[in-house]
Amino acid sequence: MSFGFPVGLLALSALLPLAAAYFLRRRQRPRVVSALFLWRSPSQRAQAGPRFERFSREASLLFEALAVLAAALYLADLRLGAQADRPQLVVVVDGSLSMSARPARGKATADRAREAVARAVSGEGAALLTVVESGVHPRVLTGPRAPVVEALAALEKWKPLGAAHDFSPALLFALDLAGPGRRFWFVTDGPLPSGTAVPPEAGVVEVGEPADNLALVSAQRRDEADLAQVTVRVASFAADARSVEVSFHGPAADGARPGGADRSESLRLPPGETAVLRVSFANAGPIEVRLPLSDDALVEDGKATLLPAPVPELRVGVLEGLGPAEKAALERVLDATPGVRRAAAGGEPAELTFGPRGSKAQVQIGAPGPQRSFVGPFVAEKAHPLLEDVGFGGVLWTAGDNPPGRPLVTAGSSVLLSEEEAGTVQMNIELARSNVQRTSAWPVLVGNALRCGRRAKAGLPRHQLMLGEPVPVVTEASARFTLVGPEGERPVLGAGAVQLPAPAVPGSYALLRDGREIDRLEVLTLDPRESDLRGRAAGLIDPKREAGLEGGAPERRRAAWPLVLLLCLLLADFWVTARAPA
Q1: What pLDDT, in 10s, does the model give residues 192-234?
Q2: Nearest-CA neighbor of 343 among 372, 378, 317?
Q3: Domains of the chain and CATH, by start
Q4: At what angle do helices 561-578 and 58-75 cross, to 10 degrees?
Q5: 426, CA 20 to 30 Å: which among 200, 207, 458, 578?
Q6: What are the strands, taking DSSP E only, across 458-581?
Q7: Exposed / middle / buried, residue 26 (Cβ in 10 Å: 0-12, 13-18, 19+)
Q8: How far is CA 120 from CA 89, 156, 169, 183, in A?
């Protein structure tokens, strides 16, 4: 139930004088009659001046009060179940990072977008508003069908920080919300990229302004032992050459040892050019990289927080049963690989095991049966991560019976390397009669196996992500995993390697296993496509197809049933009053 004209309810104030009139009795002039039998009933009129006394015509008062109520409902335009008839406006706002720009002169782009939405609401005469934010995954900011005052108030908290994306999904989503053939608006900082599919019902409001900007377009960190190696790329989207001072700040990773990050580096950038800066810090915790914030039109792309990203430690076990050549070749590679710790007997279980064929090891080495030696040609599935950068030039490979699983490396009809469905890797090789361990193929092959073992550990394989990148997560089937960040909690469904959609909001995200934090990543607000503000523009593109708002046409008239009820009540009151004794 709603009222189209609530002021009409003021008509209910007529109930007060109506009730007072029934309580108030006025003094009547005496009337002379010839005989008493002409009076049908005793007169109840007041014999002295005006006074209040109990009235006797309750039915008449009830009908007249209901008639006043019916008149008030008609004047207030009572609507029962007519919410859909109120005109609704659907607006799409660009959620890209560039919408947060603050030019040196004038208002911020996001503020101009809010004003454009308010003007569209006023111009369309809409009573309901739905605001959709475009992005990699479009989402409803306010509504759907929220009152205009509430929607505009919620839009004040909006802060666009998304990556560059295609606008078409958001526009099609808005078209569905508005209804077929209904007009809606798209607010962006323009101009629209070529090839953007804009429905003919959509009007485009461009609120951008060209501006110079300095930005971080990439930032990476790698930790080896106590040394953090940071690489950043700085870009100049300005009309003239700029001197840029890049500052690095961060606490020490361990308060008991000196370290941390506290340094500034200067760069000279010609217009439209980029420069790479590489620095190292000892024993550093999270490092914050910043550009000068003064005279920067987009401050969000001038800062980045780089979390420690050490090589994950991997516990490796070597099972009994391997030959002396295989065991010696494995131990040489394991001892020289950083981040590898040998699993001790009776201690924590190994996360990756090497053993002979037929054992429970995850990587099995052996060549039982009749053996043959091969010098090529070798056919390898180079796309498999186990064979990345593995070269077979000058390799002598001695193999036995074909192992089970999907072949990865073959020579003729012999399978030299295979992978079973459960993930077990079979190396069909006799190292005592081969020279593989004396070539570069062996350490690279074992290193790839160790890297695959690290990737199978529960956690976040990457600790820095750019805007718009999906989140890789490795989970275990026996635990419950949740990703917690600025968007709230997001459960991670599935076991093993899982890829979550790109976060809509940058910031710090934590991975929880059964409610306990085990890893953390930072989504950085870095996107060179959004940092270039030189081509932004303002303008207006009217809809190509004339269309109205949902619920705006045809114009709805006041309901007639309160008038019918009013007439019926007046007739009932007349009938009750006419049949009353004189």
Answers
A1: 888 888 899 999 999 999 999 999 999 999 888 788 999 999 9
A2: 317
A3: 2-82+558-578 (no CATH), 85-211+534-541 (3.40.50.410), 213-306 (2.60.40.3230), 314-455 (3.40.50.880), 464-524 (2.60.40)
A4: 160
A5: 458
A6: 464-466, 471-475, 481-485, 488-492, 496-500, 507-513, 516-524, 538-541
A7: exposed
A8: 8, 16, 22, 11
Residues in the chain, total: 582
CA R_g for the chain: 40
* Cβ count near 347 (within 10 Å): 11
Whole-angstrom Cα distance, residue 207 to residue 112? 6
- The number of CA neighbours under 13 Å toward the Cβ of 303 is 14
Q: For 458-481, what is the mean pLDDT?
A: 90
Assign 100 to helix, strand or coil.
helix
Q: Give the HSE-up count for residue 441: Cα atoms under 13 Å, Cβ half-sphere.
A: 19
Q: Give residues with Cβ within 8 angstroms of 219, minimum separation 6.
A: 230, 231, 232, 233, 289, 304, 306, 464, 524, 526
**Under 8 Å between Cβ of 60 and 570:** no
Cα–Cα distances in angstroms (integers) from residue 565 to residues 6, 22, 570, in the given order: 19, 22, 9
The secondary structure of residue 12, as a DSSP letter, is: G
Tokens of 524: 């950085």
pLDDT digits (tens, 9 = 90+) for 162-196: 999 999 999 999 999 988 888 999 999 988 888 88
3-class state of residue 174 by DSSP: helix
Q: Which of 284, 214, 294 is nearest to 249 (CA)?
A: 284
Three state DSSP letters for 126-164: CCEEEEEECCCCCEEEEEEEEEHHHHHHHHCCCCCCECC
Helix boundaries (H) for 24-167: 58-75, 109-124, 148-155
Residue whose pair of structure tokens reads 């009932």 in the numeric block: 572
Three-class secondary structure of residue 172 per DSSP: helix
